[in-house]
Structure formats: structure tokens, C-alpha cells
Amino acid sequence: MKNWMYDGDSKVEPLISSRIRIARNIKNMPFPHNLSEEQCKNLIETIERAFYTSTHMKNDFKTIRLWEKDSNELKSYLEKHLISPNLLKTPNKSAFILNREETVSMMINEEDHIRLQCISSGFNLKEAYEMADKIDSMLEETLDFAFDENLGYLTACPTNLGTGVRASVMIHLPALTMNKEITQVLKALTQVGMTLRGLYGEGSNADGNIYQISNQITLGMSEEEIIANLEAAVGQILDQENRSRELILSKYKYELEDKVFRSLAMLQSARVLTSTECLDLLSNVRLGLEMSLVEGVDKAIINGLLVNTQPATLQQNISRSLNERERDIERAKFVRETLSNLM
Amino acid sequence: MKNWMYDGDSKVEPLISSRIRIARNIKNMPFPHNLSEEQCKNLIETIERAFYTSTHMKNDFKTIRLWEKDSNELKSYLEKHLISPNLLKTPNKSAFILNREETVSMMINEEDHIRLQCISSGFNLKEAYEMADKIDSMLEETLDFAFDENLGYLTACPTNLGTGVRASVMIHLPALTMNKEITQVLKALTQVGMTLRGLYGEGSNADGNIYQISNQITLGMSEEEIIANLEAAVGQILDQENRSRELILSKYKYELEDKVFRSLAMLQSARVLTSTECLDLLSNVRLGLEMSLVEGVDKAIINGLLVNTQPATLQQNISRSLNERERDIERAKFVRETLSNLM
């Protein structure tokens, strides 16, 4: 699996990354919100032991105990989509196990005891699922998971019952956003048991025109069905997005190019840059790259900027505390330096 | 006298150009609005004869008869500030005599029979006045001007009575515009008998933060007093503008640089550019050049763009008729090409 942030091999495409998340709980043990701090820490040890015993990639992984890290570092993991906002709510009880490539992240004591995530660059749900399934099977050799013959795997929230599998993609839909068709897309997805959310999950805005599409229903469906359904829906949305892009290009070629080239020029020249504006400009440049209107910025650069310009990650890379204005100045500097001498 | 549009010698400065305008009328002849087309054309011939007989620079000048030209070409002269909107109202009765450098323009049958203008680059009112005075004296050798011992030179509008001289400067005041002090400047100028107007004269907006400051009163004052008063007022305004700039720089250095560099980048990359936006961006880049925040764009380029991106001049240089959208596309192309490979 390739990390979507560093994938420099192929063309910039609207489908940024694919993710499989598996929820599991230990048999006969209350869900995390009913466990004490001590019980949670013991559980982390138990799960760690199971993980590092069974995995063949022992040296590749490390455990990050939330109570040992400062909040900015943790927010940076959030910005990289490696952990959820929920996990950060109980830093004294939670941990996650992460591989070096940052493609596998296993949260411990989020809503469920285990939330294993495998994230792959591009449209690769199957690859991500195979990895998740492999780790899940290895864990099951040691751990006894809560399972009901009728309901399947038991989870804290009933929407995750069954396979406990949620599949999602991160997708760039600027044309459908521009022409407001995104509202209809959301409606259609809801009707087939899927959901569309902004870049940073539930309730977040679609900054940078990047959305997450995922299945809402896990009960009564096999993992293969979940993935196949999502792939089909995403395929349709991609077609719709591409048709909208062609329409815009045929009607407003100059205006579209204007947007793309101005955005690139602003990223290359701004001295003060907010996070939201940065995401918007990156979206426009990304659109230009995806449509081959502009060249010379590769996938790793454009994807890397998406995360490295986020407040906490930016601050993390600079290694000092910044106020908002200083951050906007440092962001502009970082983006300018990253994009200088490129074109 | 140097033409402000092509003056590439010195630093970009807030004071763009200085102009002297002299109004004269032929004795015992009604003002132009009371003359028939035939009378006007005869008068043009009379004045032309006087001009080309007395001037020693005969080969340098040409007469442009408005009825022989298409309206776009005439508008382009307006955009270069060589003629007034008033002159264009009676194209069948009017003409102007222009030198090759486009620093001297003598309108015939505007509000007065003769409106002689001398325009010099930078803060050079005296130089412009000397040239205007020289031509005026030469004309007076042949022509008999309407003159009253008490009132001085007689003019169609009483505000021009006396010397018939109006002095004005074209000045870039972005800082006073930004901090809204420009309203107080206007009040103060009005109290001392001067006026402040936008780039294209009465009633026009100050697009590009460029203003015209001129004396309103000509009666009871010598030419020297008019010029000295204007010079003093303009000097004060320049000081005020510079203080405002320093204040902005000390408080908002990054924001100011952000504005300047983004504007330059947009001019270098836009694919669609309206005239108004273009003037705004040019004003920001000009401010950066004047404050030495940015380098590499010389005076002739920045001044040239100010005029060459105006609708009629742009169309004139492209030599074909364009609709508004096509003009915005061609303007972006022209600006991009002018500013490419500069920095």
C-alpha cells in the first residue's frame, strides 16, 4: 500500500485515497466509555501484546500513547487522517499503533476497543481491505472478539454491527461543488445507504472541495458487497464529476484556466495564507492538474501540501509554537518554497 | 518634455505626470457651441494655419480631425489623456493637433476655441508651463485672442477666466485611499481652491488609486502663483501619502507584501482580466515598486500598462473589434506577455 501523501508515481486524480476501517471489541468487556483509566491502559497493553506477537512487521510499527504526547502532535495525526477527533477526547485512556509508512493505524479505546484503519493511495479499496483483513485475522488468533451469530461483530454503535467494516474514499469534487450538483449527489448516496462528508469527517465543511464517501450500513452485508457497492457509487460520481468538468471546460475555458493559473500564482507568491484559502487554492490547482490544464506539480507535492499546510502539522514541522497570524505567514512561506522553481 | 507613458529613466514614483492646460478664444467669435459645423471647420483651418506657421516644430505635429477617425481610435486618445470627453461630443466640429511624442495636444472647438495641453512625466509643472507658454506666445503672433483688461483671457466657462491656465498632476495615492484619509484631502483641497478627481476627470472614479489634482481658480492669479500653489499642495499630499505608507508598512508588513506580490502574480498569470481589476492590481504593484518592496518592473512598463490595458487602446493595438469578454481575455494575454520573464 502506498501512502497517498507521498505517492509520486502517477497522475494527479480526483480519487485521492481509499480507506477500510474495521471495528472490533474484546468479548465480555464493557465498551471503552464504561472502562476506567486503569482498565483502558491494561487493555491497551493486552491489544499491543496481541498485535506485536502476531504481526510479522513488528519493526515497522510503533505505539503512540496519547497521554505521552502534546496536543499539537496529536492534532497533526488527526490532520493526516490517521486518527479520529473522537480518539482525542480521551487522551488519558487511548492509544494507537501506527506503521512507518502511515498507511495502517489501529486506534485503541476510541468508540470501540479496536478501530483498525488501512489507507491506500488512489482508488484501491480492495488492497486496503486485504491489508485490514490480514491484520484482523492475525489479531483474532490471540484475541477473543465479541461476536453474535445473528448480529455479527458487536460494536458500541449499532450502525457498525455486522462486519464492523466501513469503506470510504477521499475524493476531489470541485465541478460538482461549483455547479451545486453535490446536494443531489448527497441525497442519492443517502438513499443507497452511503454518506458524503467534508475533509475532516462528520460535520466538517468540504474545504478544498474534498469529500469522504463511505457506507453507512454494515449489517447484513458481506465485506465484498460493501466494497463493491461503494466502488460502484464512487464510479458513478466520478463520471458525473468528469462530465461537469467537460461542460465547464467547453463553456468557460478561459475562466477555468484563469482560476487554475491565478491559484497557482497566488500559492507561489502569497505572504499571508489562511488554512481555508490554502485548501481552496490547492483545490483549483489540483483541478488544473487533474484536467491537464497545468503541469509540473506532481501528485506527492499537491497531496503533501494538503496536509502539511494544516495548522497543527505546519506547527509540528516548524517545531515551535505560533499564533494564528504567524502561522498564516509561515504557511505562505512553506507553500512558496515548496512550489518555487517548479514551473 | 518626456512622455510619462514611455519614461523609462527613473524610479517609479507616486507623481506620474504634470499637465498645463491653457484656454484661449478668438476675438469677436462666438464660442464653439454657438458655431455651425462650417464655421467650426473654417476655424480649425485658421488655427491650424496659425499653428503650423508659427511653430518651429512643424514636422513633429499632425492634425487629427475627429470626423475622419473611428470612435475607437478617438477613445484611445481619451484614454491617453490627450483629449477630453467633451471634445468627443462634437466629432463633426472638432479637431486636435498632436506632436509625435504625445506630450503636446491642442484641442480645437472643445468648450473653448483652443485648449492647449502640455503633459510632462513626473513632477514637472514648470517645464510643462514653459512649453505651453511658448506655443501660446507663438499663436498670439498670428491670432487675436479674446482678452479683457479686467477679466483677462475670456473663456466659455467663467471658472477659466483670467490666465486661462489650469495646472494639474496625476498622482497615485493608494495609502490615503486605503485608510480613507482621501476624503479629508479632498475637503482641504476644495478649501484652497483646488480639486481632486479620478483618473479620467470629472465624475470618474479613482480607478487604480490614481487621482488628478488641479487648481479650480484662475481669476486674479498669475500663472506662477497657480503653479506654486499646486506644487505646495501636492507636496503636502505626497508627504501625507508617504507617512501613511510608512505606517502601513510598520504595522502590516506581511499583509502589504502579500498584496503586492499576489497582485504581480495575478497580472502575470490571469487568463481573464477586466479593466477595473487590472487597474487595481497595477496600483498594488506600483505601490510595491514605489516602496521598493518589489523590483524588476520599470517605470515605462508600469505606466505603459496603465494606458495600454484600457479598452479602446487595447483594441486599437490589436487592430480588430472585440466584445467585452474577448477584450478581457486579450487584456490578460497582453499583460501576461508584457510581464513575463521580467522577475
Which CATH architecture of the largest domain in chain A would you pick?
2-Layer Sandwich
| Beta strand % of chain A | 15-25%
CATH superfamily of the largest domain in chain A: Glutamine synthetase/guanido kinase, catalytic domain
The shape of chain A, in one word, is globular
CATH class of the largest domain in chain A: Alpha Beta
CATH topology of the largest domain in chain A: Creatine Kinase, Chain A, domain 2
Please outline the major beta sheet of chain A. 8 strands, antiparallel
Class derived from helix and strand content of chain A: alpha+beta
* Largest interface pair: A-B, 17 and 17 residues
Number of strands of chain A: 10
Look at the structure and give the mean pLDDT of chain A. 92
Count every helix of chain A, treating DSSP H or I runs of 4 or more residues as helices: 12
Oligomeric category: homodimer
The helix/strand order of chain A is EHEHHEEEHEEEHHEEHHHHHH
Q: If strands are numbered along the chain, what order do they take across the biggest sheet of chain A?
A: 2-3-4-5-1-8-10-9
State Rg of chain A.
Answer: 21 Å
Low-confidence stretches of chain A: none
